[in-house]
Amino acid sequence: MSFQLSLSSEAVTAAYPDQPLVVDPESTVGETLQLLRAQKTGSVLVCDEGSMVGIFTERDALKLMASGADLTQPISQVMSRDPVSLSADANVGEAIKRMSQGGYRHLPIVTQEGKPTGMATVFGITHYLVDHFPETIYTLPPNPGSIPSEREGA
Which is it for strands 106-110 and 86-87: parallel, antiparallel or unpaired? Predict the structure, then answer.
């Protein structure tokens, strides 16, 4: 299967999504930070009665810590509301496009009802690309747009 065809036909669920890490809106910022650290992940979904209402990422955490924010406040006060997400039937190409355009490293995968089923990550998509297209990935020059001025080698 060709590179382009696979990206447009293969579901994002094939790109090694993580299980979503979930907290409720009343969890404190401190509890959420401890959970992120314990699980060694960069994002957590905030869900109310099973439906996603926000996301809190390591970028949000850095901004909060830099401003000296109160870590006892509810995560719902500092989360990003209505995050960009992917439907479970989105393809790998769509995930790459959304991540690239928005500068996202994590995109929730949700059902039509807004219930999280996974988390598409840059790591998972890179892993997918290397596993499925090793010839394409491993033969790319370090700077694909540049041409060496001198011949390499002896």
Answer: parallel
